Fold these 2 entries.
Entry 1:
Amino acid sequence: MAKSEKTTDHNAIKSWVNEHDGVPMKVKDTDKGNSALLRIGFPDNKNSDSENLEEISWDKFFKVFDDNKLALLYQPEDNDKLFTKLVNRDS
């Protein structure tokens, strides 16, 4: 099993996601103030193709990411499984 890592580094997140052809996304109609339900979308992931998701800019993604004190949990060494999860920074 690949080791998971947690990061809040914007450059590391953007670089890893771009490297895997991913895009920043949010669940439609979840905007509330400076909050929204964020996702990372990947082209071969059937969940990324949902009509309930929309691509957003990295600026918007990181604004919500930072305002909600999130971190990205991912597996940097496993290119077969593009596992990502947004988690609380303090947990």
Entry 2:
Amino acid sequence: MSLIETLVEVGAHMLWPVSCPVCGAVGKLLCEPCLRSLFGRPPLPRCLLCGEVIPCKVHGDNLSRIRAGSVYEGDMRELILMLKGKYESLAPRLGRGLAGIFPRPGLDVLVPVPLHLKSKRRYNQAEAIAKGLGDVWGVEVRNVARWTADVATRAGMNAAERLSLSQDVFDFGEDVAGLRLGLVDDVCTTGSTLSRLAGAARARGAEVVDAFVLASAAGRR
């Protein structure tokens, strides 16, 4: 890079301190073309009861689903990992992109998966994604779910360990009876976390319409 090109780049970053993490366009938190490309090939929905691809061989296809905007690989994987670091401002932007590929569902409330009890992160990326969804769909976000047990984080676990998650690890701190809920998380691997949260919501008298995630585990199309 020449001296002039270097000075131009430094000057651009002084004027626009953010840049698109995918293509590098200055002044863009995540540029529109890159945002659209991230959600260009959504995977098949999955059963919210067991995590299998729809049509589910056990539960059929007339049921609540996990709807993912992308596969957890490539640029989407890198961006989701960035959300868990210092790039939390990307989460609502990705949530708005996710909302743009699905018709507005009949929901009363969006409920994000809560942070684990021992999490050191100062913000919940699922809640921030839900706020982006809610902005586009005009749906309220309520951070009302909570873990009832101090379980280990899902990262690094294999499928069998994830599926062993107890059925009663979630509860709700507010009355959700009669509400139509949409659950929100960043990634779906086996679907066990969302399934347990949906079970807790139904036990409290809520209707779980669907769950929405940025990405579903690679290989589960």
